[in-house]
Amino acid sequence: MKKIIVPVIIVVFGVCAFFGYKVASKILSTRQTSNIQTEQTTDIPLVSQSNFIFIHVNDLSLEKPELVSIWVGFVNQSLQSQMMVLPIFPTLNAEVHDQIIQKFSINSENKINQRWINQIQSSFDIKIDGYILTDDIGVGLSNQWITGKESLTTTISAKSDFEKHTILVNGQNSWQQFCTLVNTGTANSFFSAINWGLLLPDHFSTNLDFESLTLLADNIVHANGQVQCEVLSNE
């Protein structure tokens, strides 16, 4: 499948420059248009960063879980740590949407097929350094640990544009609440509330090792100065 190349948006919420806005604008445009465009642009240096995808499926106990959403997190671990998250699935681009679903697969150990990850990297022209996979129960628990209130998440794989919009709004709200904790220096309330006994082994999977996960959390919680966290979604 050909890479999707689209014009660079000059400003996306005023923070894309921190994370290489050329990449972010490609992803945003891919979600919102079904037309593949090609345009020469001036190369803009990208800030050194790590890119992670957060994958939500309906139920990891099923033989073939349904893909619900994918968000990308760009984490820049500079002197002042910065994090930007935005959705890449579901997308209004029907062709890309269908291709992502058709090639999505999980093995018996709840690990993602590397070919599918390669497809995501190629489609959106980004390098993926790791993934975190969870299901409705895991997302509900995460929302509970973020807000302090019990949360139940029940979702289905989106087919209509309205269903896609609903899923994106729900994800946007959750990430905005998380970023509020990060930006106010209280993200530790979330990380310290995580009960791994409720998540493992049935509702959480990742290709990151424990050290990488711990380092990522520590960089958010214990960064020098205030961490900047932005949600690039306007549903």
Can you offer a commentary on this structure?
With 235 residues, the chain is α/β, with parallel strands linked by helices. It has one domain: Aminopeptidase (3-Layer(aba) Sandwich), CATH 3.40.630. It has helices spanning 16-19, 21-32, 94-103, 114-124, 136-147, 161-183, 188-191, 196-199, 210-221, and strands at residues 50-57, 67-76, 82-89, 130-134, 204-206, 228-231. Strands 5-4-1-2-3-6 form a six-stranded mixed β-sheet, sandwiched between helices. A hairpin with a 5-residue loop joins β2 and β3 (82-89). The protein is globular, with a radius of gyration of 17 Å.
- Count of helical stretches: 9
**What structural class do you assign from the helix and strand content?**
alpha/beta
Strand content: 15-25%
**Biggest pleated-sheet summary:** 6 strands, mixed
Q: In CATH's first tier, which class applies? A: Alpha Beta
Reported by name, the CATH topology is: Aminopeptidase
Output the strand order for the largest sheet: 5-4-1-2-3-6
Question: SSE string, helix = H, strand = E?
Answer: HHEEEHHEHHHHEHE
Pick out the low-confidence regions. Answer: 1-26, 32-46
Question: What is the architecture at the second tier of CATH?
Answer: 3-Layer(aba) Sandwich
